[in-house]
Amino acid sequence: MVMQNQMRERQMAMQVAWSREFLKYYGTFFALATVGLTVGAIKRRKPFLLAPIVPLGFIMAYQVDSAYGTLIYRVRGEAESIMTSDHDRLDLPHGTPTFESIEKARRARSSLASFLEK
């Protein structure tokens, strides 16, 4: 259990680190695109050139929230809520595997392998 928890923590740390690294590149792109679109809109007097900034801004806000904000805490809270109130959504098809079902699958696989060898 301790090892499994450490692996989970490492995966979460990698996910946050990846978000922060991606934010650096996306932030640079967003800044350059915003400046370029703003200058183009002013020079050409076409305000519709500013329209792409809106969806790019939403993506930027999501990335900032993911890298440095409280997104991970809100997702964890929602997951805990699902586990307590909507637990039936988490049920596996055919229920939880039992020792008998695992053994049955193992025997079927080993008999198939021996059949294929012949």
TrEMBL record:
Query: What GO cellular component entries does it have?
Result: plasma membrane
One GO-annotated biological process of the protein: positive regulation of plasminogen activation
Alphabetical UniProt keywords: Membrane, Transmembrane, Transmembrane helix
Q: Where are the transmembrane segments?
A: 21-42, 48-73
Q: What is this protein called?
A: Plasminogen receptor (KT)
What is the species listed in this Swiss-Prot or TrEMBL entry? Champsocephalus gunnari (Mackerel icefish)
